Amino acid sequence: MTKKLLTIPVSEAELSAIEAYCAETNRTKTDVLREYIRSIDTRPRENVVKEMIRLKQELQNIQQEKADLEMLLETVTDHSSTIEDDFKNRAKAAKRETEEQFQAITEAMPVAVMISRIGSGEILYANLTASKWFKAAREHFTGRFIADYCINADDCQQLLQQFQERGAVTGYELLCQASDGLPFWVNASLHSLRYKGEETILFALSDIHALKQAKEDLNYAKEKLQAVLDAIPGSVSWLSCQGYYLGVNPHLAEQFGLQVDDFVDRPLGFIQNGKTFSDFITNFIHSSDLSRSEEIQLVVNGEVCHFLVAVQKYDRGNAIVTVGLDVTQRKEAEEALRIAEEKYRSIFENALEGIFQATPDGKFISVNPAMARIYGYDSPEDTIAGINRDNRPVYVNPNDREWFEQTMETEGSVQDWEYQIYRQDGSTIWVSEDTRAVRDGSGQVLYYEGIVQDITKRKQEEENLKRQVAELQIEIDREKRDRQVREITQSSYFQELQAELQTLKFEEEEL
Q: Which SMART domains does the entry link to (predicted)?
């Protein structure tokens, strides 16, 4: 085969185009030229020229596109720098605006806001409310730690540990203290926050000191109420307006041999103790009364008991509270007192002796009919009015009243005291009095009470007896003298004297 040498002139521009084409197609110049030469034999020359023109045009297009791309790249690069700067400026402005908004929001919030580092707990920020609550200036928080404002360091440590475990904490009650040492309760909520380029903890503290104090006061009040309910010797119960038990005190449960919880949600009347209580409560529930009291009779452990029950509506009439006091002993005492009073009244009214009550200064409080008769009045009322109101003289001897007052003051009583009084008609009689002072618990005299008997007849009999005794004594004395005279005249000595007297008389006659 005969080899032919073909020489093709190529300009520098064409060579550059070929090189560019090779770079674009990732082929070598040799491969491109060899493929071109092999195609010369099969293609007409005009086709080669056309192909060369096309390739040249394509190369020019590629060069133009390259130039356009380079220009676009330069333009985009310049524009991107401008956009980047704009974005940076906008980001800075947005950051500044966000920080200002954050500052404004936190300063206006009614809760204390504090920001601290996660690791050390060092405070980075505290809002105005925190400054007020902790009674410290803003600069006071700088370099301090959250634990510095907690009374119990263990509580603070537990709070931070919960945050580390959960990533957020809400509703944690924490006892803090202000810079002056005064304690106050807060409700703490912790959340993560990126602040000035670092991860921090955002503390939001709500003041619950008043609420905490109110809860403590409420618990204290409940404890006092429970202590009162436990100590009350009466029965206390709470019922709904539908007639179901809401609760009872221990005393009521013990009365029926049950537990307190046995009453809860049970209907009124589930204890068979008679319908009186159930009817009373039911009528009260359906009435417009806010409170009522009544003495009712119940059967407790098979025994009939009397209770004074007071009821009161509360919770806008949706519930009632009942308080029952066992007055069985009082009823029995009242009945015994009534019987005793009837007996006393019968004795007082029908006694033959005068019975009275009087003030220490001598004013009658009460007298019985016998006393009125002794003083000559028709009734006890007339006696009191006649002596107290009319100031009628009572004592015949005015010194008797003075003696009585002194004796009562020193001795507290008089017994078998006999003296004369004036009756209503002015006549005098003899009376015997037994009186004692009635005192209160402190020893003060309340009044005098006593018994008076008319002893005029006895006194008269005594006087008659004394007179008879006196007369008898005179008679006895006369008889005694006569007997003594007889004894003297009949004695031998008297006879001797009489004989001597006769002798002397005879001798005188002789002389």
A: PAC, PAS
Amino acid at 49: V
Quote the crossing angle between the two packed helices 12-25 and 29-38, to the nearest 10°. Answer: 100
Contact call for residues 255 and 277 (beta carbons, < 8 A): no
Identify each DSSP E strand in 219-362 by its residue range: 235-240, 245-248, 291-300, 303-314, 319-326, 354-358
270: which 2 tokens? Answer: 């589930």
Scanning the structure block, which residue is given the tokens 């006092």? 224
Residue type, 63: Q
Q: CB neighbours (10 Å) of residue 509?
A: 7
Number of residues assigned to the chain? 511
Token pair for residue 389?
């109101």
Average pLDDT, the chain: 82
* C-alpha span between 75 and 366 (Å, rounded): 130
Q: What is the pLDDT of residue 21?
A: 73
- Closest Cα partner for 421 from 447, 453, 462, 464? 453
- Compute the distance between CA of residue 50 and CA of residue 52 in angstroms, rounded to an integer: 5
Locus of tokens 């028709």:
378
Residue 97 scores a pLDDT above 70: no
Q: Is 130 exposed, middle or buried (0-12, 13-18, 19+ CB in 10 A)?
A: buried
Q: Helix 45-108 to helix 12-25 angle, to the nearest 10 degrees?
A: 60
429 CB-near residues (< 8 Å, 6+ apart): 374, 420, 421, 423, 454, 456
3 state DSSP class of 167: coil
The residues with which 292 forms a beta bridge, in sequence order, are 311
C-alpha to C-alpha distances, 66 to 60, 61, 71, 73, 289, nearest whole angstrom: 10, 8, 8, 10, 103
pTM of the model: 0.40
Q: What is the pLDDT of residues 154-196, one digit of tens each?
A: 998 899 899 989 999 998 999 999 988 899 999 999 999 888 8
List 450's β-bridge partners, or say none: 356, 435
Pairing of strands 291-300, 354-358: unpaired
How far, in Å, CA of 373 to CA of 429, rounded? 12
Closest CA to 380 of 409, 403, 358: 358
The residues with which 193 forms a beta bridge, in sequence order, are 200
CA 348 to chain centre: 52
Closest CA to 367 of 447, 293, 426: 447
CA angle 312, 316, 322 (to 5 degrees): 20
Q: Which two tokens stand for residue 404?
A: 């009585």
Do residues 432 and 421 make contact, with C-beta atoms less than 8 angstroms apart?
A: no
